[in-house]
Amino acid sequence: MAEKNSDFEPNIVAFLCNWCSYAGADLAGTSRIQYPSNVRVIRVMCSGRVNPLFVMNALQQGADGVLISGCHPGDCHYMQGNYYARRRFMLMRNFLEYLGVEPERVRMSWVSASEGAKWKEVIEEVVSGVKSVGPMNKFQRRQLNW
Ligand code: FES
């Protein structure tokens, strides 16, 4: 059972596609929309670029949750990248659940460049979902003393 405390502030790693979700997050910032500061953004050219190992590495290296966000279906600048990302995400989430990782920790969303307000909602949902399951402590790499 995950330990929970009310002061827990999760670390969220967000992989955002350059053309839509990154621009949407940027719009939220330039519009001065307040959203939780728990998220660390990694910009990728397309959500289809996100390898499941990126997610595993983030969880191993201290992330409590991971968000992948890209253009809406049909709007991907590389035609089908987000469709590949969606399929990969479903498989990966099932696999992570099999390993004991709560589904609240990994999330996928579609946020366009004009959806700064939606970006705020997505981040709030992700943060509250991860808070509900507590800190991630399943994949922490052992510190080796040489
Ligand atoms: Fe945004 Fe492919 S370019 S998801």
Question: Could you explain how this protein is built, in words?
Answer:
The chain is of the alpha/beta class and 146 residues long. The protein has a single domain, classed as Rossmann fold (3-Layer(aba) Sandwich). It is 38% helix and 16% strand. It has 4 helices and 4 strands; from the N terminus they run βαβαβαβα. The chain has helices at 21-30, 52-60, 81-98, 116-133; strands at residues 12-17, 39-44, 65-70, 106-110. Strand 3, helix 3 and strand 4 (106-110) form a beta-alpha-beta unit. Helix 1 crosses helix 4. The N and C termini lie far apart (32 Å). Residues 17, 19-20, 46-48, 70-71, 76-78, 81-82 line the site of FE2/S2 (inorganic) cluster.
Name its key features:
146 residues, alpha/beta, 4 helices, binds FE2/S2 (inorganic) cluster, 4 strands
Please give the structural blueprint:
Elements: E1 12-17, H1 21-30, E2 39-44, H2 52-60, E3 65-70, H3 81-98, E4 106-110, H4 116-133
Parallel strand pairs: 1-2, 1-3, 3-4
Helix pairs in contact: 1-4
